[in-house]
Amino acid sequence: MIRFVFAIALACLFAASFQPNRAQAQDLQSLLQTHHDEVERPGRRSVGVVLDDLVASGFPETATFLENWQGKQVYLRDADGLFFYVTDDGADGFTLTDISTGQTLGTEAQNAMSQIKPNGGVRRAIGTALVQFQLSDPDIARRTAAVDAIARTMSADQLAPLRGAIENEPDAELKKIKQRLANMLAAGFGETPEERIAAIDGLSGDVSVDIRAVLNQILTVERTAATSRPDGANVAQTLTVGDQLSESEAYQLLVDLELAPALIPQDTLKQTLAQHIEGGFVGGLPVAQMFTDDARAAAYSALAADGLVTPLVTAQDQKRALETHVFLDVYTEPNAAITNAARAALTKIETRVKFSQMADLTLDGLSLASIYFLAAIGLAITFGVMGVINMAHGEFIMMGAYTGYVVQQIIPNYTASLIVALPLAFVVTFAAGVAMERLVIRHLYHRPLETLLATFGISVALQQLAKNIFGTQARPLTSPGWLDGALVFNDVIQISYIRIAIFVLALLFLGLLLFILKRTRLGLEVRAVTQNPRMASSMGINPDRINMLTFGLGSGIAGIAGVAIGLYAKVTSEMGADYIVQSFMTVVVGGVGNVWGTLAGAGMIGGLQKVIEWLNPSNTLAAQTYMILFIILFIQFRPKGIVALKGRAAGD
User: Fold this and answer.
1) Measured between alpha carbons, how far is 611 from 440 in angstroms, rounded to an integer?
2) Are 203 and 187 in contact (CB under 8 A)?
3) Which of 83, 255, 451, 512 is 20 to 30 A off residue 391, Cα-Cα?
4) CA–CA gap between residue 257 and residue 260 (Å, rounded)
5) Which of 198, 220, 242 is a domain's end point?
6) How many angstroms separate the CA atoms of 271 and 550, rounded?
């Protein structure tokens, strides 16, 4: 019995002597002392043992130590070899902080302390170990920073700690990001081909740029050449010389791979010949004959035959070398199943990207169409009912934008100021439109040339008046905070909230105008005057009053459009000029005096402009030119627009 107990005790003692150092350590300082030399003078290869023990120790202060070690904030006291954090007390001394307890331990002279300075490779290794702690840190900001750090420098050793931090992640959004990043890491660094292929398949539904970067990394190829197609190589494609690869590129590849001798440039050939001139001859030929390429080549060949220089590579030599080699793009990833999965996933993603680009282009076109609709609808009403070519319509847009700016100076709350600015801009520009119609336009009915010149003069005068009041500098019309940012569907499809708001505003105005024209007495009278003013007058309708109200209504709508446009465009005295041409094009293409025609015209012009800009993104001026040419051709075949108006306009 005694022998049995003694044997057990001896076995326990023997086993304890072989436990890792971290089991013997009672605190962080003790653990570091077992790796004293590695901590003091860390190397990229030796630091791994220290980091493994630190991670496995479970000490809560380990993360803080790693951060300080990585940041060169750990010091060694030369007298006893203990490690501390220090702060400069300003009197040639350091205040010491215990790395295990965080308690202040007094001061020490600076010359008694040595700073630990890990090199870049060691700091990167420490950072990798530190991420394991940061991924589960109670502070979400630190967890997010750790995830961002992994995303920036993805490596195989980050996969296991990231997966371990997913299950207990309390934040749902960050948990999704961790899962997505883990799939990206598994696609590139999974332990088995099956695991990597499964991760690649899981990425195929995401069109993000970083996902495509991961797949493209897997599909990285190296261009090479060989006398025959190498067995077991994961070949992406065999290159045809003269088609995918020029002859000069192919031969240079052979030279780079040391499969063929390098070509000798003419300058080098001339210098070599000059070095071998003897008695007025070189290679047995007179120097006086060295004025042609053929003569220099003959002399050089003679020197090569005597073994004095490297032989010249002839065209036949190049051709023979190209014919006896195959040229290949070989995947750096040796497993064909993995590259096939990555190629299939990337093809699927690229297809989704194309559809997403089409959807994004459609959204851009609708957004621009809504802006053109708001800018043109007032002009369509006045032009359709009155036949007045109002060149000052853009200035009513400008007046509305400046009204919004003035309101924001009085009401600093951007939401409240916007609510006030929209109806106020309508009132201001409605009054200005009525005044313009009463003072100028009513005297110029049925005189289109005089009307055009008069309204152009008013346009110039209003621009100058705005410059005198507000100056020539652009003024800010700030949108409310809830309109900041954009609605993002994916990395390809997104639209700003301001443009969404303008689109909704255009729909509201479409509904409002249709209600006024179809359901109110004013609308009935407007339509009556539009279709047959003489008959409307005989029925007791005052065409003069209707013209005044219609012109004021069109001007008021332009003012509201100015507030909407000013939220994302510059507010200047010339801003109306940027939209007057598009407004007239919208009205003419859509059909004069018709709400639905204006909507159709705005949709056509907005969509056409975005398509042309997409096809030729580097030249927006060309896009405008092509669009105008298209509209000129369009009105040749349909002069009354997409939706032709019946009645007086049809007769005109």
Assistant:
1) 41
2) yes
3) 512
4) 8
5) 220
6) 88
Please indicate, yes or no, if residue 436 is contained in any of the structural domains. yes
pLDDT per residue over 234-264, tens digit each? Answer: 999 999 998 888 999 999 999 999 899 888 8
Domain count for the chain: 4
Q: What share of the chain is helix, strand, coil (3-state, %, to 5)?
A: 65, 10, 25
Q: What three-state secondary structure class fits 578?
A: helix
Q: Identify whether 345 is part of a domain.
A: no
CA-to-CA distance for 282 and 294, rounded, in angstroms?
14
Q: Do residues 287 and 281 touch, judged by C-beta distance below 8 A?
A: yes
181 and 66 within one domain? no
Q: Element (H or E) spanning 222, and its range?
A: strand 221-226
What is the layout of strands, in order, in the sheet containing 235-239?
Answer: 221-226, 326-331, 235-239
pTM of the model: 0.70
Last residue of a domain, one of 88, 123, 158: 123
Per-residue pLDDT tens digits for 306-344:
888 888 888 888 999 999 999 999 999 999 999 999 999
Find the domain containing 318 and state its range: 222-331
* One domain, residues 213 and 252: no
Q: Which residue has the tokens 């005597």?
A: 306
Dist. CA 525–CA 545, nearest whole Å? 10
Contacts of 626 (CB under 8 A, 6+ apart): 612, 616
In a 13 Å sphere around the CA of 274, the CA atoms on its Cβ side amount to 7
Q: Is residue 500 part of a domain?
A: yes
Query: SS3 for 409-466, per residue?
Result: HHCCCHHHHHHHHHHHHHHHHHHHHHHHHHHCHHHCCCCHHHHHHHHHHHHHHHHHHH
Tokens 């630091």 belong to 47
Whether the predicted pLDDT of 615 surpasses 90: no
Q: Beta strand 93-98 with 83-88: parallel, antiparallel or unpaired?
A: antiparallel
Give the residue ranges of DSSP H helices in 324-440.
Answer: 336-386, 393-410, 414-439
Both 213 and 200 in one domain: the answer is yes
14 found inside a domain: no
Give counts: helices (H), strands (E), the chain.
28, 12
**Max CA distance (Å), the chain:** 132
The answer to whether residue 9 scores a pLDDT higher than 70 is no
Indicate if 379 and 460 belong to the same structural domain: yes
Q: What is the pLDDT of residue 7?
A: 42
Same domain for 526 and 391: yes
Residues 200 and 258 in one domain: no
Predicted confidence (pLDDT) at residue 416 exceeds the cutoff of 90:
yes
At 49-91, the pLDDT tens digits run 888 888 788 788 888 888 888 888 899 998 888 999 988 877 7
Whole-number Å distance between alpha carbons of 122 and 240 = 46
CA 89 to chain centre: 48
Is-contact 397 579, C-beta < 8 A? Answer: yes
Picking from 624, 621, 592, 618, the residue whose alpha carbon sits closest to that of residue 605 is 624
Rg over alpha carbons for the chain, rounded to the nearest Å, is 40
| d(C-alpha 646, C-alpha 635), whole Å | 17
CA distance 542 to 205: 64
Same domain, yes or no: 466 and 613: yes
279-294 CB burial, b ≥16 within 10 A, e <16: eeebbeeebeebeeee
Q: Which helix (H) or strand (E) holds 152?
A: helix 140-152
Q: For residue 491, what is the DSSP state?
A: S
